[in-house]
Specification:
Blueprint (H helix, E strand, L loop, with lengths): L1 H53 L9 H7 E6 L4 E5 L4 E4 L2
Antiparallel strand pairs: 1-2, 2-3
């Protein structure tokens, strides 16, 4: 019985570092994906900021280019509509 405990203790001891490295690898990969997503969002926001700075301050007419640059989608409900911007911001319009 003592022998079995020693073997299982050794087995657990051998597997723990492997599991730890695997978990660390997965965490590192997850963080790299999150960083890449964050970098992509930062770039889109910088591009959007640059685009907006180039636009005239007053918009007097419909501008297809501006809409395509800013809006991801519009959802229409009975009592409102929701505009989702490419930056991820959503705006509800109740009129």
């Amino acid at each position: 019985m003592f022998q079995a405990q020693s073997v299982s203790t050794v087995f657990v001891g051998l597997c723990t570092p492997c599991s730890g490295r695997s978990i660390l690898r997965e965490q590192k990969q997850k963080l790299q994906v999150e960083n890449a997503n964050r970098d992509g969002l930062k770039k889109r926001m910088a591009d959007l900021s640059t685009f907006l700075k180039e636009q005239p301050t007053a918009i007097n007419e419909y501008d297809e280019q501006l809409i395509r640059q800013l809006i991801e989608k519009v959802t229409i409900f009975e009592d409102k509509f929701t505009a989702e911007f490419k930056s991820g911001v959503t705006v509800d319009v109740n009129e």
